[in-house]
Amino acid sequence: MAGEVGCAELTRKAIKQGSSLALHDLGVYYYHGMGVEQDRDMAAIYYYRAYKSGEQNGLNGLKSCYEVGALDAAVYDSY
C-alpha cells in the first residue's frame, strides 16, 4: 500500500506538469482504490480530464465508469 500511495503522489506531480497520461492513471487509481480511497466519481472526472487533454485511454475509462453506473451529470459540474 505504501508504494501505491507514493505512485499516486508522483502522478499528481506529473499532472501539475501537464501530463494527460497521468490524469488517466490517477483515474485508474481512484477507480480501483489504489493508494487512494476508491471513488468511481473521481475516477470519471480524471478520465474525462484525460480525454479532453488528448489521452484516448480516458474514453475507455469513462466507458468503464458508465458500465458500473458511476457517470452522473453532477460529476461534470465539478470539472
Radius of gyration: 12 Å
How many beta-strand segments?
0
Distance between the termini: 29 Å
Largest sheet: none
Assembly status: single chain
Structural class: mainly alpha
Tally of helical segments? 5
Strand residues, percent: under 5%
Helical residue percent band = over 70%
Tertiary shape: flat
Low-confidence stretches: none
Instruction: Please tell me the overall pLDDT.
Output: 83
In N-to-C order, the SSE pattern is: HHHHH
What are the defining features of this structure?
79 residues; mainly alpha
3D structure, described in words:
By secondary structure, this protein is mostly helical. The chain is 72% helix and 0% strand. It has five helices and no strands. It has helices spanning 2-16, 20-32, 40-52, 57-67, 73-77. The N and C termini lie far apart (29 Å).
Give the secondary structure arrangement, pairings included:
Elements: H1 2-16, H2 20-32, H3 40-52, H4 57-67, H5 73-77
Could you give a quick summary of the protein structure above?
Helix content is 72%, strand content 0%.
